[in-house]
Amino acid sequence: MTLMGWLQIGLMAVAVLLVVKPLGIYMARVFSGERTLLSPALGPVERLFYGVAGVDPKKEQGWLGYTLAMLAFSIAGFVSLYLILRFQDLLPLNPQGFAGVGPDLAFNTAVSFVTNTNWQSYAGEATMSNFSQMAGLAVHNFVSAATGMALAMALTRAFARSGSATLGNFWVDLTRATLYVLMPIAILITIAFMALGLPQTLEGSVVATTLEGAQQTIALGPVASQEAIKQLGTNGGGFFNANAAHPFENPNAIANFINIFAMLMVTSALVYTFGEIVKNRRQGWAILSAIAILLVAGVGLIYWAETFGNPILSTLGIDPAMGNMEGKEVRFGQALSALYAAVTTGISNGGVNGMLGSLTALGGLVPLFLIQLGEILPGGVGSGLYGMLVFCVLAVFVAGLMVGRTPEFLGKKIEAREMKYAMMAVLILPLSILGFTAIAAILPFAVSSIGTSGPHGLSEILYAYSSATGNNGSAFGGLSANTPWFNTTLGIAMLLGRFAYVVPVMAIAGSLVTKTRAPASSGTFPTDRPLFVGLLIGIILIMGGLQFFPALALGPIVEHFLMLAGQSF
User: Fold this and answer.
1) Rounded Cα–Cα distance for residues 547 and 524 (Å)
2) Half-sphere exposure for 442 (CA within 13 Å, toward CB)
3) pLDDT for residue 80
4) Do 540 and 457 lie in a common domain?
5) 299: which residues sit within 8 A by CB, 6+ positions away?
6) I want to staple 141 with a disulfide (CB 3.0 to 4.6 A). Which of 145, 229, 234, 411 is the partner?
7) How far is CA 44 from the centre of its chain?
8) 0.90 exceeded by the pTM?
């Protein structure tokens, strides 16, 4: 580890902190229906959308109506994207003449983008037409992220309101998230990316002559716009198979900085938005502090593991103090590769600027564990906030048990009903991740897709189902996942991770919004102080350890000790 590396990481932290408050306040005003700087230009467009869709923006929904609207929208999105992929050979903007996508891969991809997972069992530049990239994938990069933001705002209102029956209007929240937040910022980032050299064209490819005189076909397309919303909406699906390690997606250090900054800005600011709407900014800062502590710890562990290197190299006459550079972009080095790996898995992004499977055993363990925690550091756009609020409910419940009082969070009593729903939500992750991993690890045709033997091979399977269930989308590498088994089961895992998680969360919101918000008393456990931050961190780590430590011990942990003993995989 070097001082320069830590300065680069620190610069990113400062940049994100500077934008959290102003962007958080702006989004609070957007979702509260207040006038903003963009209202004169976008207000008429918003009203036009409501008129065409027949939506009454003043009519709010209860938790069940809100949830059913979200599910209906997601089903319609899945069907439309599935059809686009299956019949892309008959649709326009297909200069490469790509065939329609096969049924199992189309199912996997459609589920992936609808759930904001963006897992890719294909090479984008060799599989997807420009029409599929833009009308299919890019559209869902916007609306799946906006759906997560809408759900987070519904849960936020459950804490902010007192004795109410409604949580807002899904169609209004979806429209405002897309129109006022994601679209304007994505346009600015797209322009910046184009200025830095990312292609933005409808041409399918160009032919170049190499120094040896050979002809090389270089894939092109609308890359800059796809890359902007990929990061901003914490989607992560790359235009190219190499993702952000490809020079057309990530050409230089400035582009790399913008990539990471775009991942963090909206999802971090939403935590401040929560504090603003519930009229307790200290609460927003407290939750953000817990997120920052865990994320920085993750970055530090990866950075340390990668600079520590592999002692086996000493037997080959190579100084292990040089660290592990396998699978990393030499332009970015260990520090920015560690930062990118932790951020992309601490949030629900999944983009990579290096190969995670090439990290050292402990370096690879951290991204895996960050996903398994539920991707709440700070998590996907919207999904990270409501995931973290579930842990806040669990933390105050534990605190209530300690002092023998009915737990409260922001004046709302947390009772048996809320705890049952919270446990239903958090237990879906280990059920899907460990269940599918156990089945795949004993099926010969599934094991045959593993690229590496030993504990690293188990990590490949475990990472795939963790990434799918956590709606992350990154891959450990080495696993040939484009098979009917993995396409289907990973798709099911994505559905469980998104919808089997969020429905109980919305039930919590429906229960809490009807309760009267009680004022704080002398016996109230303060949830905006360092003690609560520590308790929240402890609950997150304990839950993650209890659920996943045995599986991690069989994978990256045992691989680390075998590396120290001189064996590699």
Assistant:
1) 31
2) 5
3) 96
4) yes
5) 9, 338, 339, 342, 343
6) 229
7) 32
8) yes
